[in-house]
Amino acid sequence: MDFETIIGLEVHVQLNTKTKIFCSCATSFGDIPNTNVCPTCLGLPGALPVLNKEALKKAISFGVAINATINQDSIFARKNYFYPDLPKAYQISQFEKPIVGLGSINIEVDGEIKKINITRAHLEEDAGKNIHQSDYSQVDLNRACTPLLEIVSEPDMRSAQEAIAYLKKLHSVVRFIEISDANMQEGSFRCDANVSIRPLGDKNLYKRVEIKNLNSFKFIQKAIDYEVERQIESWRSGNYDKEIIQETRLFDTQKGITRGMRDKEESADYRYFPDPDLLSVHIPQDLLDEASNIGELPEDKLNRFINELGIKKDDAKTLISSLEMARFFEDMLDSGASIKNSVTWLNVELLGRLKGDINLQNCGITAQGLGILVKRIDEGKINGKSAKEILDSMLKQRNNDVDFLIKSLGLEQIDNDDMIISTIDSILSANSDKVNEYKSGKDKLFGFFVGQVMKNLKGVNPVKVNEILKEKLK
Prior knowledge:
By secondary structure, the chain is an alpha+beta fold. It folds into three domains: 3-289, no CATH class; 298-408, no CATH class; 417-473.
């Protein structure tokens, strides 16, 4: 029997506001535990929450980015459950009327475009963090009350590959509209995956398992693949009804398996009701208009690079692979570098030199520095071989003064016509037999003459050499 996989994802995006969603405590990461707290985020009696306007604005911006319905009137609710890192014993979230309603994004898998529907995106506060030691646990409440946008998809994905494509697209969108740093290592972009299976052709939905708190594309794919295989094996062995229950599971990254955590709660278990301490939210038109100004989305930028700048699709995809990459490229163009050479020297030459922990942000090369290097190539002041040597020096010395490096390394390209002509005349005179062979049809000898000139005039402009040599050989 063949099976179909059904996947829906709940993604938690930490919004990059300076303060928390319902109080004025800082949202900075990595501070001393329990220092960014106040009576409100500690859930002390009498403390009242106040909604952060910037968090609301960022949620609206996301809704605009996915062409979603924006609910100008919404409410906050209390989601009741007990956990050591939830000081109030409830979470302020949204249930019946979220800020963002139905929307969608498109993903591409194996060259095919697929639409993934998004049910809702709602604002809520984060819980704190449990720190487990060998024989005891501690609670850090710095993260409590941090603003989250929970993005809930429809169960439209049919493989781990599609799920990863969806997550990467979502990650790119929230980065490009700058509502989150989406740092997965710090938990700013994490995912719960709801996974179930059914016989191919069956339209029913069966028991789903939620895999909790996944924050790595690699581990998300492994967790989904393992869980799908576990459920299929259980079905084929006849033990599906016994072994597969609707539950929350964790992914053990060491063993590569999922394991049971607790029974899966339903909405009734949370006993949602409107939070009596918060007014209903009404989004005025001026705020809606302001939040709708989100700039260029990754897909729009990709199409512009391809259609307006004439960049090949694969190269354009690399250039929009991150917000930093796209900005770097556009800043290179702003410095006067040509499009074609900028693509090559960023995508191939610079990225090819970044190894290990070295990346575009910490390599020491600025967009203006690489742009000037490309500009000097465009101008004929240096050739490609010299430019590679200069780029290596830029990386090693963390020095972006291209003109200084050209002079100090003695790599300024010879562009003197008289010198080139004199050298070519000497070489043709010394190789008269090869000149005759060339004129009799051995065109490949042209490369020999070019090589001899380049050998005699190190740093010479090869374009000039080719032009003058062709004229001389006529």
